[in-house]
Amino acid sequence: MPSLNSFVPFTEICRAIAPVAALFSVFGTVLGQAAPSHAVTPRSLLTPSLSESIPITTSVAEAVNRVRGVEPKFCSHMLALAIDEILEDPRFKTAQWGIVVEPITGPKVLYQHNRDRALIPASNTKLLTTAAAINLVSNRAPEMPLPFHQRLVEVNRYSNNSEADALLRQIGGQHKINQELMRLGLRPKSYIQVDGSGLSRSNRIPPSTLITLLKAMERHRERVLFYNSLPIAGVNGTLRNRFQNTRLHGKLHGKTGTLRGVRALSGYLDNEDYGTIAFGILVNQPGQSGRVLTRAIDQIALLTAQVNRCNSEIAEKDNE
Known about the structure:
Blueprint: H1 10-16, H2 24-31, H3 48-53, H4 58-65, E1 74-75, H5 76-87, E2 96-103, E3 111-113, H6 125-140, H7 146-156, H8 161-170, H9 173-183, H10 207-219, H11 223-228, E4 252-259, E5 262-271, E6 275-284, H12 290-305, E7 307-308, H13 311-318
Parallel strand pairs: 1-7
Antiparallel strand pairs: 2-3, 2-6, 4-5, 5-6
Helix pairs in contact: 5-12, 6-9, 7-8
């Protein structure tokens, strides 16, 4: 059993959560009990009624997460408040954000911000290229050839730009890509794609188009092929060094995007209550540190992973 010395000092947590006085008694209860090393820790610091009435701010979430084995629970309607707090950071005053977060099953939108704003997607463009290629090849070949599997992994997991551009040319160019994406439910006028890799700053994709694509590929007969071509958080590819030792370690498959002043992350993450969630997060901010942009995106993903249905939403679902 760990000692209390292994936890963050109580005074540090109190400073971080001073604006939320109602939470003090809850933290006192948690910090007064050292969690057994092999016990399953509670999913929630808060009772449902309290979590529905008090927003979980980023500062509170970070303070709680510094206490070993404890993670906050907050209701879906609080997700918007938590993400908006990140976007309203003065450092992002000139940033253009586009975000959509939707469970794969059901019509509910957990969060959206500029869902139809077309932004520079960087390597998220590769999602269009590989999805179109999968749809084309799967219609021609009853069994997907192994070299094709390997190429998709090279393009998505390791973000190989030259391989992505070559793939676009070999399947028939941009016109063919557009045809296949139409068959997957994408509207050609909703995006601008000029290369296979996303290196060009002339590419423009709104997060709503990425969500349409992700949902279409989740229903596709080759969905496992597409899903397994994506980097895995904390495990491999361009996500191997992100989300390590968090609840998304091994539970997020997503495509990164990186250009100067551009960061993106789109894909699928596992949530205990909602199951698989599709998400698209794009930010364009010339002059901003890439590290700052990436950290903000990761915070948004982590918030999404820990959102839960609470009493009001469960009751609403039961009445449908």
